[in-house]
Specification:
It contains eight helices and eight strands; from the N terminus they run αβββββββααααβααα. The protein is an alpha+beta fold. The protein has a three-stranded antiparallel β-sheet. The protein has a three-stranded antiparallel β-sheet with strand order 6-7-8. The chain is elongated and about 155 Å long.
């Protein structure tokens, strides 16, 4: 009798131990427990710690509430400017509603992964290549909104989406390298031209100051000599000041102007050419124009041209002998001149 009682007590204890082992559940701090009683969701979500469920009637499903980092596989796509690219990304999300994550979707991880891949291909087709390379913040925000819209109903919150890498074809890489090189060369030329402009302005100001103070130019010359002599050279180059050349040029100009004047003054009394004889030629008188007579009577008026006067002999030349007498030749009548 006692043995049977002991066996019954031991059996009851074993059953109780098995029951407690099946009913006792431990929920960790970063987890939440969703209880399904006979397939129906219980309103209370079990928090972290020790909890009990009815074995065979209730089922506890634990949901991780930590932030999940999920890589998005690389997706091939064509941008809006017809460039083939390969883009991969990474997504950060967490569960904010454990009951919805269990009830609304079969596998929320797989659902978020597929939605991220689809949204990534869609964002590639809507963007240009320059946006994918330089304006990633805006694309990340747009990709986050596209994934977060359906994920809200699953009890999942998208924290952040980042585009990791953009793979380009080799031909496109070479073209972009040439473009970047040309752009950098243009900026280098602009910077060099700006530096030349600033240097010219400063040199003009320095030249103005040195022209106002000639001693400054001499000091600058001495500084140049010291700078050249500091190196161990066998030849010393001394710059010749330009102001000295100008001074010598100014000093030489008056002497060059006086030399021909003195030579002319010396040759004037010795070799003075005689003035040429003055020839006064009398201008022939023009025919006097008579009033036009009537048509039946047209008188003719002939006029002799005046004989030119003989040139007067100069005072210095000897007088020529008198010419011999020549008989006068009878004058012939000249035809009438029509006016």
């Amino acid at each position: 009798m006692v043995q049977e009682l002991v066996i019954a007590i031991v059996a009851a204890a074993s059953v109780g131990t098995l029951y407690l082992a099946a009913a006792a559940k431990v929920v960790k701090q970063y987890e939440r427990g969703v209880v399904l009683r006979l397939g129906r969701l219980r309103d209370d979500v079990r928090g972290p710690g020790f909890t009990m469920v009815i074995p065979g009637i209730e089922r506890l499903r634990k949901v991780n509430m930590q932030i999940v980092t999920m890589p998005v596989p690389a997706q091939d796509g064509i941008t809006r400017d017809n460039v083939t690219v390969r883009v991969d990304a990474v997504i950060y999300f967490k569960v904010v509603d454990a009951a919805s994550a269990v009830i609304q979707v079969e596998d929320y991880r797989f659902a978020v992964s597929q939605m991220a891949q689809t949204s990534l291909r869609s964002i590639i087709g809507k963007s240009d290549l320059d946006d994918l390379l330089s304006n990633r913040e805006k694309l990340n925000q747009g990709l986050e909104l596209m994934i977060d819209s359906p994920a809200v109903g699953w009890g999942v919150q998208i924290d952040r989406v980042e585009i990791k890498d953009v793979s380009l074809p080799e031909t496109m890489k070479r073209s972009m390298a040439r473009q970047a090189e040309a752009d950098r060369e243009r900026r280098a030329r602009v910077i060099n031209a700006d530096a030349e402009l600033q240097a010219s302005k400063k040199l003009a100001e320095a030249a103005g100051e040195m022209s106002a103070q000639p001693a400054a130019l001499q000091l600058r010359l001495l500084q140049t000599v010291v700078a050249v002599a500091a190196e161990k050279n066998s030849t010393l180059v001394l710059p010749f000041p330009v102001e000295l050349l100008r001074f010598l040029e100014r000093a030489q100009q008056p002497g060059q102007q006086q030399q021909p004047a003195l030579g002319q003054q010396q040759l004037a009394p010795a070799q003075q050419p005689a003035p040429p004889p003055q020839r006064a030629a009398a201008k022939p008188q023009r025919h006097a124009q008579a009033p036009r007579p009537a048509p039946p009577q047209r008188p003719a008026q002939a006029q002799r041209p005046a004989q030119p006067r003989s040139p007067q002999p100069s005072a210095a030349a000897p007088a020529p002998p008198p010419p011999a007498a020549v008989p006068a030749r009878p004058s012939r009548p000249k035809p009438l001149a029509k006016h």
